Amino acid sequence: PLNSKINYLVFPNPRFAFLKVLELFSEADKKNEKNQIAPTAIIHPTAKIGSECSIGHYVIIEEGCSVGNNTHIGHNTVLLKKTKVGSHVTIGCNNTIGGVGFGYEKDEDGKNILLPHIGNVIIHDFVEIGNNTCIDRAVLGSTVISDYVKIDNLVHIAHGVFIGKNSLVIANAMIGGSAKIGENCWVAPSASVINKGEIGNGATVAMGAVVVKAVQSNQTVAGSPAQPTEVLKIINSFLKKQS
């Protein structure tokens, strides 16, 4: 029952309507942030910075990097050499983007020798990255974060990963080297994807899932090792009957 003393605004998606209202209040802050580069930021002379950007304190942008227009980079974030960042990107604080991945080969004496990483990281437009996240550069080619991807805090994305448009990767997730994530995917908190793993478009990886084999498009997987949810239902039903 409705309260006659209250005015109601009815929307098919109330949370999105609330978002639009909040944007009205935050617009002034966004305008004040534009064209601000902190005096403590260190930007290499060869780096290219677009217009209306904001770059926080102690940010480091190394040689050969580029940053598009209307991009915000938070305090203490590091863009290592040859990293490419698009326009309308938001990067939080304390991130390391373009670092060397964890790739080793044993020499003739059995010692682990670091594999040189001569690739880079490419972050496309309208991407958002939280705080304390690492994205490693590729051994060859590029680690690619496509348009409208959203990455939470404390995420690790290894060398050579590809993440398709509009996908979300949530806190504490780990994406192994050369893994491919499709478009419109959801990788839940603390999920892990094996190196060279493949996740199809529209797939969901549940919280804490450990993906060790390919996930089909529009499929939901859960558990360790990750299984399609319909398979897990069958297994649980069988176990209940056995007990």
Describe the protein.
By secondary structure, the chain is α/β, with parallel strands linked by helices. The protein has two helices and 30 strands. Strands 1-4-7-10-15-18-21-24-27-29-30 form an eleven-stranded mixed β-sheet. It is flat, with a radius of gyration of 21 Å. The mean pLDDT is 93.
- Given helix and strand content, the structural type is alpha/beta
- Uncertain runs with pLDDT below 50, 5 residues or more? none
Instruction: Write down how many β-strands occur, each being a DSSP E stretch of 2 or more residues.
Output: 30
Shape: flat
Instruction: Give the overall average pLDDT.
Output: 93
State the share of residues found in helices, binned by percent. 10-25%
SS field, number of helical segments? 2
- First CA to last CA: what distance? 46 Å
What can be said about the biggest beta sheet? 11 strands, mixed
User: How is the largest sheet built, in terms of strand order?
Assistant: 1-4-7-10-15-18-21-24-27-29-30
Range of strand content: 25-35%
* Rg result: 21 Å
